[in-house]
Write a structure and sequence with these properties.
The chain folds into 2 domains: 102 residues, Rhodanese-like domain (Oxidized Rhodanese, domain 1, 3-Layer(aba) Sandwich), CATH 3.40.250; 257 residues, Metallo-beta-lactamase, Chain A (4-Layer Sandwich), CATH 3.60.15. The protein contains 12 helices and 18 strands. The strands form 3 sheets. Strands 6-7-8-9-10-11-12 form a 7-stranded mixed beta sheet.
Length: 375
């Protein structure tokens, strides 16, 4: 039987449209347990290729569906082909090997329209489904700003070209530690400006435009207002778009809040985090739509594949916004935190311009899930 190939983009379309998807992941169990393909209708099992080589595919056949497509995934797309061939030779007809494996899955970006802007234009969310990263493209009157861009810049450039929109601003909410920013590259290749909060920019090795509290930026007919909101980093800054959308970076998520420890400053920054969440944001309109820079799990997605919620709803439902006791809050965000992101110190240095790893190294540095949330 011939094995078919499927791209990460094609697999993402199935997952986001909630098709029933069966996956056999042939990576080692520790890698599988750390990070895997997730979706509301995804059924996934782990069958390490080392076991398949030793014992053959027979011990796993009773776990495979006869009436459904089978998708085989590994780290980079090599072992999955061999495993898929064994499954096909066992009599299964619809067997697919995922091209590029989890590496390609990690780098796919899927644009989802969030909504129209009241001053004209629209805002799109780019969902990096394999890593839980979210970035935003705001377009109005032929101009665009991109906020918290991923390292993989081609999808943004294609979107800009297809919609005949000129990028004028590439902005980050903070100095990222879980992924390498694409903002600088987008700015350089588009003759645009790159913006970084001033308090996160100490020691950076490249030119940038400083972002400070209250600064306003025009994008066509729309206005982006910077709001200083420290706690995840000392310079963390939120962006309010046309008094409709609140881009919170890594300060506030749909089902959690940002961790303050990725620069080794948890005890110093926990007070800032509480002030941002319990005072600064509290003064904003409940009707603002929160658009975070990450999501932790597939359950945070809306029916259309986007990730968003009204600020007022989060104050009712997000546990991190409802811890009245300050000591309890402090312990929640400084103790029993999940493991830190893979290569986070190297990523921070890369985003500061202090290191310049090649493409293969950058991909390796970003392997794994984001871990910017308290839980």
């Amino acid at each position: 039987m011939a094995v078919k190939n499927i791209t990460a983009k094609e697999l993402a379309k199935k997952v986001l449209s909630k098709e029933k998807v069966f996956i056999i992941d042939v990576r080692n169990t520790d890698a599988f347990d750390d990070w895997k393909v997730e979706g509301r209708n995804v059924d996934i099992i782990n069958a390490p290729y080392t076991d398949i080589k030793e014992k053959g595919i027979d011990p796993f056949l009773d776990k495979l569906p006869k009436d459904q497509e089978i998708h085989v995934i590994c780290a980079k797309g090599n072992s999955s082909k061999k495993a898929a061939e064994e499954i096909a030779n066992a009599g299964y007809s619809d067997v697919y090997s995922v091209e590029g494996g989890m590496s390609a899955w990690s780098e796919h970006l899927e644009p989802v329209k969030i909504g129209d802007l009241k001053n004209g234009g629209a805002i799109h969310q780019f969902v990096r489904i394999g890593k839980g990263c979210l970035s935003y493209l705001i377009q109005s009157n032929g101009e665009a700003a991109i906020i918290d861009a991923a390292r993989i810049t081609k999808p943004y450039r294609e979107f800009l070209a297809e919609n005949d929109v000129k990028l004028t601003r590439a902005m980050d909410t903070h100095l990222h530690a879980d992924h390498i920013t694409g903002g600088r590259e987008l700015a350089e290749t588009s003759d645009a400006q790159y913006y970084l909060p001033s308090k996160d920019a100490e020691g950076v090795q490249f030119p940038y435009e400083s972002v400070n509290d209250g600064d306003k930026y025009e994008v066509g007919y729309s206005v982006i207002e910077a709001m200083y909101s420290p706690g995840h980093t000392i310079g963390s800054t939120s962006y309010i778009v046309d008094d409709q959308y609140l881009l919170t970076g890594d300060i506030l998520f749909i089902d959690s809040i940002g961790r303050p420890d990725l620069a080794g400053k948890a005890e110093d920054w926990v007070g800032d985090l509480r002030t941002t969440l319990y005072k600064r944001y509290k003064e904003l309109s409940d009707d603002l739509i929160v658009l975070p820079a990450h999501y932790m799990g597939i359950d945070e997605m809306n029916e259309d594949g986007s990730v968003s919620e009204k600020l007022g709803t989060l104050y009712k439902e997000n546990h991190g916004l409802n811890i009245e006791d300050e000591d309890e809050f402090r312990s929640t965000v400084t103790e029993n935190l999940p493991p830190q992101p893979n290569s986070y110190e190297e990523i921070r240095k890369t985003n500061m311009g202090k290191e310049d790893p090649n493409e293969e190294k950058q991909s390796e540095m970003e392997t794994g899930p984001n871990r910017c949330a308290v839980r």
